[in-house]
Amino acid sequence: MKLTKNQAQNRIKKLREEIEHHRYLYHVLDKQEISDAARDSLMRELSEIEKQFPELVSADSPTQRVAGKPLEELKKVEHAHRILSLQDAFTAVDLADWQSRNERLLKAPIKGGYYAELKLDGLAVVLTYKNGALVRGATRGDGQVGEDVTQNLRTVQSIPLKLKGKFPPLLEVRGEILMSKKAFAQTNKQQAKLGLPLYANPRNTAAGSIRQLDATVTAKRQLVCVVFEILNNIGQSTHEEVHEKLAAFGFKTSPYNERCRDLKQVEKYLQKWEKRRETLPFQTDGAVVVVNDIALEKALGSVGKAERWMIAYKFPAEQAITVVEDIQVQVGRTGVLTPVAHLKPVLVAGSTVARATLHNQDEIDRLDVRVGDTVVVQKAGDIIPDIVQVLKRLRPKAARKFHIPKKCPFCGSAVAKKPDEVAYYCTNKKCFALEREKLYHFVSKHAFDIDGLGPKIIDQLLDAQVIQTAADIFDLTADDLLPLERFADTSVANLLGAIARAKHVSLARFLYALGIRHVGEETAIALAGAFGTLTAVSQASEAALNEVEDVGGVVAKSIVEYFSDEHNKKLVTDLVAAGVKVAKEKVVARAGKLTGKTFVITGTLASMSRDEAKEKIRAAGGKVAGSVSQATSYVVAGAEPGSKYEKAKKLGVKILNEKDFLALLK
């Protein structure tokens, strides 16, 4: 039935209100009441009615977010309020000096405290509203003159075209256009599919997206606008009130802000977010601290190009520039030769970095990294430092290429590479560097877990030629240990007691301790549950091993090869002869509420240790993995989670906090 103009007006009004309601929920509050398909259906209906009655189309209609014709150029516009720069602070002392300067200027202490907000890394924009409608959006530019990007900003769903609530006749606000880490990963994935160059980082991608001449390009990017400042006077008295007003007008504001009564509280805020910044959906390089009282802000004013009443606190950089002084090889417990860059020491993410892994020869060739090169090194959270870029224009003439040596640098044996792998191996199964790494692994927490026997003591025992293999550990006597440095009667008795207790070990721990290639903690548990005894595992065929869940062809082949090797057979025999008792554990996998689910745990749990959490998951039929992948069902995130949390967000894996995890276990 064709609508009359009056009916169309009423329907358009209701549709716009409904669409606006769901836009606000989804893009500002991160909530959802209806499906994406239902929202699309509402938009289609509105679009159809507006096509029939074009005279009823208004600038604030949701349909007008769709981009128009490409622009020939971005016009320059002058800001009504000059956007000044920020002073920088890098330490608590810098913040204290900033406060002292301001108090000297005011001739009084700062009252009303501070307002701290994370400095989300994006493109600064200024939005102007007249009578509640968006009339202009511009980039910050040089602070006085920016570029008119109104058409592009209208496509950003978190920017309201019409304000909510009781708004003033004129409103000018400042915000940041952001691209989340997840959206950035998806954008680059699409670029790679199309064979196009990858973007450098979310900040540059967001900025480039807004400065497009064709707004249809902007519309395709998953951009977000977070608003944090009101530039004109609408009666606000504190910065805290500014954020309350912005939220009431319908803007998306940052959930990471905090009112702080003094600098001590500001420092706690900064410490908290410095530790947690990896868990954020957006990149951040620090926080902005402002004097909360706006009357004091006006009294303080500005100096040069910077406001006196606000300061940017910079977190320790996660990337730094340094020089590759050497590239050396280390041998792991499976015999893999890993190239390691020895760097001129540099401070990265709060700690001094002097080495970075180069992974393998393929990675060295991809980066084209050479000894003498100036490089960008990156360290984030618990991630091992990495070289992510070579600044080739700074390469000296004497820069030296590196290649994995043909002979093991430790034992002189030949180095080989399997056709289907990138890694090079030392072919000597008795290479002393390999044996040392194997022993480190053998006594580690999830293996034999011998209290007091760590890498330093292992080194001491090896250097004194008291031990050569893992089996020798269980034959140690007081006479072997007492002559060694740092050993006395009590420490010897404690270590020998720990060794004696470790002789009784589960099959899963024993298998893991052997260091069989591709057999991690979870695979060892699966093997123990499937076969029950050491004899059964050691004699299992590839076909039988392939029947075990999580054991594929590569792992099965590796296990068979391990137990077929005479050197490895002798080690197992010697361990048993030394008194190691491997418990039988025919564990039948129980069906439970977590059957078929794979978990990854990151961060610190308050109610239990990670190992206890793993046991609870397994008891309910679930599995625990060490890394996040598409096969991960849940990531359990405790306090201060690491890079696994971020990877889960990128892959869209469901993240459980501790409360959700405990509820799932009930």
Features:
Helix Hairpins, 666 residues, 7-stranded antiparallel sheet, single chain, OB fold (Dihydrolipoamide Acetyltransferase, E2P), 6-stranded mixed sheet, 6 domains, D-amino Acid Aminotransferase, Chain A, domain 1, alpha+beta
Task: Note down, in words, how this protein is organized.
This protein has 666 residues and is an alpha+beta fold. The chain has six domains: 5-65, Helix Hairpins, CATH 1.10.287; 85-314, DNA ligase/mRNA capping enzyme (D-amino Acid Aminotransferase, Chain A, domain 1), CATH 3.30.470; 319-417, Beta Barrel (OB fold (Dihydrolipoamide Acetyltransferase, E2P)); 432-505, DNA polymerase, domain 1; 507-582, DNA polymerase, domain 1, CATH 1.10.150.20; 598-665, Rossmann fold. 37% of the residues lie in helices and 21% in strands. The strands form six sheets. Strands 13, 14, 15, 16, 17, 18 and 19 form a seven-stranded antiparallel beta sheet that branches. Strands 2, 3, 9, 10, 11 and 12 form a six-stranded mixed beta sheet that branches. The chain has a four-stranded antiparallel beta sheet with strand order 5-4-7-8. The chain starts with a helix and ends with a helix. It comes from Candidatus Kerfeldbacteria bacterium RIFCSPHIGHO2_12_FULL_48_17.
How do you describe this structure in short?
The chain is an alpha+beta fold and about 675 residues long.
Total domains: 6
Quaternary status: single chain
CATH architecture annotation of the largest domain: 2-Layer Sandwich
What is the mean pLDDT? Answer: 89
Main sheet properties:
7 strands, antiparallel
CATH class of the largest domain, please?
Answer: Alpha Beta
- The CATH homologous superfamily of the largest domain is termed DNA ligase/mRNA capping enzyme
Model regions low in confidence, pLDDT < 50 over at least 5 residues:
none
Q: Which structural class do you get from the secondary structure elements?
A: alpha+beta
The CATH topology of the largest domain is: D-amino Acid Aminotransferase, Chain A, domain 1
Count of separate DSSP helical elements? 25
| Number of separate strands | 25
Query: Which strand-content bin applies to the residues?
Result: 15-25%
Determine the N-to-C terminus distance: 55 Å
Assign an overall shape.
Answer: elongated
Global Rg: 31 Å
> Helix fraction?
25-40%
